[in-house]
């Protein structure tokens, strides 16, 4: 067979990180941002709890004790950049609280028991709700982000391995001795891992969209509970004096003026570049491109379903599998053509230049060679003769021509009763006489397949091709 037409080694750019297959966006970025936001809300509620607890303790004391109350909210809010700094939001609400608490230093209010029994439990329950929400986010979206990152690393390693094997294929003139290093096999491994990655990415994205949509409701609930707590607190302390009532009513009025979605709406606007856009379409494997995806070494010369007789002498009949002749001159056997459900590893790999092929007899033909797939069966059987049966005699002839073109050898009879090279057919008694014409046809068919591979079909089309029998080679012209 002529040397491969592609001799340029893959560049560093084609074997590096693929923007489509491995996005640069950190999958944990959004989940981490939302987790930090929950921390901000938790600390906000904690600020309120500290405030009310301090009020409860100092109501029976002198005015100077109220200075301790002011200290609980004197520091800026933690993660304060999550809150809108303009008036009318949580940050403005705390500024209002600080001003009113300073005025309360001159008042003495004895409502310790009432505050302890009605206001603090509300805030404590809210604090626990936020903690529970943070745990759900950590076990869900944040854990999924780590899984996505792990799957991306696995995919990137196999893409880099594909670049290495494709480069080795070009540098060695298309000769491969290890079936596991066949770029065709490595590419299918990339597709399998990429499928798992995309499924995890889409699931993670859907989780984040759901979490983000839930945040609006949850934050409205937080503000609603805070408003209820402050309202109850105001009712308790309001009866102690007109001034105290006025001060706390001002606090209540400030928090009630905050729209339920005020903070989330402004946060969405400020962090739009870091939050997931719910309108973005989900990723699709068919739309992804990665380095060496269309490399000549990954395109099958011919592929389709064949029936093969078991090497076990106790077994009878034929079993159907999916077979591929790769540019690396291997005949691979797979269970099927699906790259999604399972990792596609050859169950049988014969290096065709070292094999002997018999002339087809109707739809049957034999190949004698050593299985190099590395499976337990290959180690036990060694070199053996395999009997194949195509769907039609024309299919068998196409497989024979492609394989003969790859091996660059004349067909030879194989010493077995099931061999298609028998003396019962006059046209097959001297298979050597038909070698020049058959070799020329095989060489043209092989060259045509290298130039026009039929490996760009979708998984659905591949399954249909498998059912029809043969793709690649002269399959199109025959159809």
Automatic annotation (TrEMBL):
Residues 1-25, 445-479 are annotated as: Disordered. Residues 1-15 have a biased composition (Low complexity). The keyword Acetylation does not apply. Keywords: Phosphoprotein. It holds the Pfam family PH_20. Residues 299-408 form the PH domain. This is PH domain-containing protein. It comes from Hypocrea virens (strain Gv29-8 / FGSC 10586). The lineage of its organism: Eukaryota, Fungi, Dikarya, Ascomycota, Pezizomycotina.
């Amino acid at each position: 067979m002529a040397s491969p037409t592609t001799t340029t080694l893959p560049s560093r750019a084609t074997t590096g990180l693929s923007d489509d297959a491995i996005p640069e966006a950190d999958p944990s970025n959004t989940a981490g941002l939302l987790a930090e936001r929950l921390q901000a809300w938790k600390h906000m509620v904690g600020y309120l709890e500290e405030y009310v607890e301090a009020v409860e303790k100092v109501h029976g004391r002198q005015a100077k004790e109220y200075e301790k109350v002011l200290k609980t909210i004197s520091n800026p809010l933690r993660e304060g950049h999550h809150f809108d700094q303009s008036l009318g939001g949580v940050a403005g609400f705390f500024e209002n609280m600080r001003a009113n608490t300073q005025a309360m230093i001159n008042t003495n209010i004895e409502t310790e028991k009432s505050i302890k029994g009605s206001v603090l439990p509300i805030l404590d329950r809210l604090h626990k709700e936020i903690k529970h929400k943070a745990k759900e986010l950590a076990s869900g979206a944040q854990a999924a982000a780590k899984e996505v990152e792990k799957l991306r690393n696995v995919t990137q390693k196999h893409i880099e391995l594909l670049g290495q094997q494709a480069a080795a294929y070009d540098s060695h003139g298309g000769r491969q001795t290890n079936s596991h290093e066949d770029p065709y096999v490595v590419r299918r491994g990339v597709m399998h891992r990429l499928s798992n990655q995309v499924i995890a990415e889409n699931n993670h994205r859907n989780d984040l969209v759901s979490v983000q949509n839930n945040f609006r409701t949850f934050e409205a609930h937080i503000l609603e509970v805070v408003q209820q707590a402050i309202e109850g607190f105001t009712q308790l302390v309001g009866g102690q004096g007109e001034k105290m009532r006025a001060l706390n009513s001002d606090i209540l009025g400030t928090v009630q003026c905050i729209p339920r979605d005020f903070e989330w709406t402004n946060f969405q606007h400020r962090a739009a570049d870091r939050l997931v856009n719910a309108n973005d379409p989900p990723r699709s494997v068919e739309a992804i491109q990665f380095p060496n995806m269309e490399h000549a070494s990954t395109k099958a010369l011919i592929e389709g379903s064949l029936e093969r007789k078991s090497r076990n002498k106790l077994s009878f009949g034929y079993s159907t599998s999916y077979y591929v002749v790769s540019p690396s001159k291997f005949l691979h056997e797979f269970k099927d053509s699906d790259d999604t459900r399972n990792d596609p590893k050859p169950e049988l790999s014969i290096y065709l230049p070292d094999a002997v092929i018999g002339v087809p007899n109707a739809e049957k033909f034999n190949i004698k060679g050593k299985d190099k797939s590395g499976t337990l069966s290959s180690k036990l059987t060694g070199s053996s003769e395999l009997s194949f049966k195509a769907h039609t005699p024309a299919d068998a002839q196409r497989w024979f021509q492609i394989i003969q073109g790859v091996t660059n050898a004349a067909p030879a009879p194989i010493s077995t009763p099931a061999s298609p090279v028998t003396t019962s057919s006059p046209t097959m008694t001297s298979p050597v006489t038909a070698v020049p014409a058959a070799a020329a046809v095989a060489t043209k068919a092989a060259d045509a397949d290298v130039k026009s591979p039929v490996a760009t079909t979708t998984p659905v089309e591949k399954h249909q091709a498998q059912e029809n029998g043969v793709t690649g080679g002269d399959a199109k012209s025959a159809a």
